[in-house]
Amino acid sequence: MLYPKRLMEDTESELFNYTTGRFLVNEALRLRERRHVFNIPGLFKIIAKLGEGGLNRTFLVTFDSGPEIVARIPYSLLTPKTYTLASEAATMNFLRSKGLPIPEIFAYSFVSNNEAQMESSNGEIALLMDQLAELESIMMSISFPVGGSIYYAEDLKTLSGNTGIPLEGPFCIGPDVSMPLWYGRREQLDVFRGPYKDAKSVMIAGAEKELAYLDREHYDYKKQPPSDHAENLHHYLRLAPSLVPDDDAFCIRHPDLSDSNVKVSKDSRRLRIRSMLDWQHAVVLPLFLHAGMPDVIQNEEDEVSRSMVEPELPGAFDQLSKEVQDWERELLRRRLVHYHYNLSTAAYNRIHHNGLVYPFNPFRRHIFNHATAAWEGETIKLRYALIDMVLGWARFAKGDAPCPVVFTEDEKAAAEKLYRALAGAEKHERMLRDYAGYAEETWVPAAHYEKAKAFSQEIKRMTLEAGAQDEEVREEAYAVIKANWPLDDMEEEELEEYK
């Protein structure tokens, strides 16, 4: 038996601290962001810590009378915390009322020292393409009068003083809780975040938010000035109305369809999706912004996947070494997931399929995301996308309207050069990430930490040795590599200006 009072005295307990993974860079800071000392009394018998995600810690709680619930506690880095928690609870219950397999919320609060509790969903995790497409079809078929995030009207009135745009029953549409609209000090901005009356409002809200953020007076302009990004945002706002296609109806989709958020169990005949978890930051958007393959499924970098030819193992597979066989099996798995998701979507979710095949739709999402994202000191990706749109203006022009933005040949050449250099650097970073086996924020599984750390230091040593071979630039190259090695701890104070 675990006693709440004793647990509360031990603030170093794993109950309050992140233990699932480690971080190769600035680990102490990353762990502080994920530490949360919460109030244990009220939970009967804490059986196990189920898991830890990017924004929450989850516990399985067993009551003396037998029932089990899941208690989920958000990290302090969740933003905007109150709106996100209130919206997620309403979104889950709203979609559950439509027949989707979503855990029931028994209790929740968007104030501190409370934990959301939901029905336990046990079972292994898998991606079952036909069922997933059918479930996505249900949610994407729900009609909404406006865009934004779902709330209980009473909760939204408590948070903001208004009750939003009414939906059926106690639900309503209120401000969009997408993270880029609230990141860091952006949460303090008095800017429009919805509800959105039309697709154009969605397309411009993020860029106008970022312009309001960049219009502060305390920048020192020592690095790439925010004025460069502001100029590109103004260009985007002039082009944005032409990005809206004819089919701009609002719909909702799961914000993070990863394998950890789809719970699967096996009955006597087959695997079945039992629940879909983690609806934080869910938002109602136009179809063309929701259409796209989930990151965990898409395999567009692979030529075979792009061809949509049914994949299979290579010839003479049995003659390959065990290491190569393991690689080929994993490659086949990724290709099959990509292939069958496309087929299942075409068969069971025509709404999404139409969005996937809509002309130039990936580009619309691509440039929208760059214009909405929080500025992190560079603007070349947005600039390059703007130039791409200007050069292909005929694809988006409404009638014979001239393009409202013009770039000089010198501006195009400069953007091309910088974009290629950045693409090369990102390619090298992806290779390092694949070799060392880390994810976002240099996260690795706890069991893999020592191996990954040693490997990253070995790669650094080899890189320094390679840079020292040219005697003419030896000292300079050595200093640059050592000062900028991406897997060493670094001062993050200079990054605060982007928050």
TrEMBL record:
<protein>
    <submittedName>
        <fullName>Uncharacterized protein</fullName>
    </submittedName>
</protein>
<dbReference type="GO" id="GO:0005739">
    <property type="term" value="C:mitochondrion"/>
</dbReference>
<dbReference type="InterPro" id="IPR011009">
    <property type="entry name" value="Kinase-like_dom_sf"/>
</dbReference>
<dbReference type="InterPro" id="IPR051035">
    <property type="entry name" value="Mito_inheritance_9"/>
</dbReference>
